[in-house]
Amino acid sequence: MTQDLVVYLIFIVYAVGMLMSFGTVLTWVERKQAAVMSDRIGANRAYVRLPFTQIKLIWLGLFHGIADGIKMLVKEDFKPRTYDWYAYAVAPWVVFTPVLLVFGVVPFGGLLDPGRLFPGLADWFDGRTYPMQIARLDAGLLMIFAFSGMTIIGTMLAGWASANKFSLLGGLRAGSQMISYELVMGLTVLGLILIFGTVELDAMVRQQSGVVLGVLPAWGIVYQPFAAVLFMTAAIAENKRIPFDLPEAESELIAGFYTEYSAMKMGLFMFAEFIEIAIIGALFTTLFLGGYNLPYMHDGGFTLPGGYEIAMSHGAVVLTQLVVFLLKVLVVCSFQILVRWTLPRFRYDQVLSFAWKFMLPLALANLTLTAVLVWSHQSGVNG
Description:
This protein is mainly alpha-helical. It is built from 14 helices and 9 strands. The protein has a 3-stranded antiparallel beta sheet, with no helix packed on it. α1 (2-37) runs parallel beside α13, α3 (85-102) packs parallel to α12 (263-288) and α10 (225-238) runs antiparallel to α14. The model has no long low-confidence stretch (mean pLDDT 83).
């Protein structure tokens, strides 16, 4: 139907715009946050001059991300002397595209009723409602792991196609590291699947809308605090960020798997990394921080302890959910940047030993304990 097409096109534009904005802003946030932690000023040179004046708009260096993008676009695209041209050209897009597709199954808001939001269009929408999610798939969580696994192919392809030993070594490191930590990520979310009984992300978020023990929010991190720590650690490792940035280790491999890339091809690799920071923030928010939910909030407003009601219009509820989701994602992104500028880089053997000898057994132990607790709870209820 035309109505459905219009709504989902708006969702797609919003999601892509949000990811691109996050990716650009995070380049500035990382520079400024790192500068504050290092007692420096940080990015403060790029500016926009108002036409026909000498007034420069610096805005704390916010234009540096835009300047970087322009620089990547206009730089000359150097290519290695001997390389596989097709694989070399395709690899950045194999890394960049799945990162965008992952967000297609992440719910960024609750149920949207366009007829209530715009009363003049109520007859046209005829009571239709839409979950604020581009693709509401029954196996949404599984699709995320399928798409994220494609980025492994892109990094290894880039390392192999560049005909450079440093690139090849970086690609091999990336492949082994990402596969190792993706296994840990999968085991951590299995505990949540056992608790919520679904792999559909919007259903998971809806089950996190209540409270536990009358005080605590019924978020995934309350049910699975240990899994939350393991998930975040594995996600940072899969994104190849310090302390797990061995595939790019500039002191060893120059730039790792994209050593031979320049101009916009290199920009795609770098931009994909920052967008993946936002994706990790969105996934962690969805799985462990209640998504767009706030404690005591529902579709009509808030119901506080003691029976106090705070009524809100549908538009106010939708706006609150969107803002809450974005703020949670921003906090998680800031935490990732904090880790990146706090911890030193591991040795490569330590990275894989940490995954297989430490995190994997802990993830299995957490899954086993969760399965026993869920089974005992269900046995008590049925009994």
